[in-house]
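Standup notes, structure subgroup. Blocker cleared on the ketopantoate input:
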Amino acid sequence: MKKRWHILGAGAIGNLWACHLTSAGFPVTLILRSQDKLNSFSDQHGIKLKEELYLADAELADSPYPIEQLLITTKSTDTKTAFNSIRTRISSHARVIVLQNGMGTQQWVREQLPSAEVVWASTTDGAWLKQPFDLVHAGQGYTRMGIPDQECYWLEELGNGFLKIELDDDIAKTLWRKLAINCAINPLSAHFQCKNGELINNPNYLVEMAAICREVEAVTSAAGIKLFDGPLIEHACQVAELTAENYSSMMQDVKHGRSTEISSITGYLCKLAEQHNISIPVNQKYLKKIQELQT
Ligand code: KPL
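Run returned:
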């Protein structure tokens, strides 16, 4: 019998991974936020995806069962509160995967669990929930995962479901690349309330995107991080083109009045810029604009 995975964060990616792990033969438990959510889960006992029902269990954070394997898919900005709500249940030698946008929380989780194996992960899969536990896998991507400067043999066990998984021996760089692209696309699309594709079709937006990219490169090169071979703006434009018809996660959060991940995306970059004494006024401007929308 394979060991159970607990999933903290039952948004679209958490649901998608619950289906993947179930299809790979793991028992899965979703840790839900409220009794209402738990009641609505209990009606179907699983997650619907493409006419199939993937059976899983669900519980609240205060359930007594110990956690040996934990996948964290909360929004990066919710991580600390969610983690603290189950902290006493997590075994000190647990296997943990942190699969999120943004940066900062991966290091934080590792510090909280010094004897655990904490894997960092980044995905390009696209998914959304039609309603709770009724999932659409909108874009087949891949998930890269690894532990910085360490091998992790058990990750191979995870590859038998339907998602594409790649072991990454430079996961910190992968997360940086994702962060750089998110800095370029997310705040602009959220501010202008537009699809990703409009950022490259509207010359005024493109000028802003290019300025953001130059600032990101100034910070990463001061911090000794090599992003891409070519300029960041080229990669950001490629992603905007490939996802032209999509609304970024931040644009959707703003549209629905939800909190955004700006503090662990542009906010993380701005903190690093400050440490290196680099001025990044365009990123600062959008950090402030998006923060203002949330207050
Ligand atoms: O990761 C994304 C997001 O929306 O958060 C991008 C790459 C911008 C695709 O929309």
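Discussed briefly. DSSP finds eleven helices and twelve strands in the chain.
Next: hand off to the docking folks.
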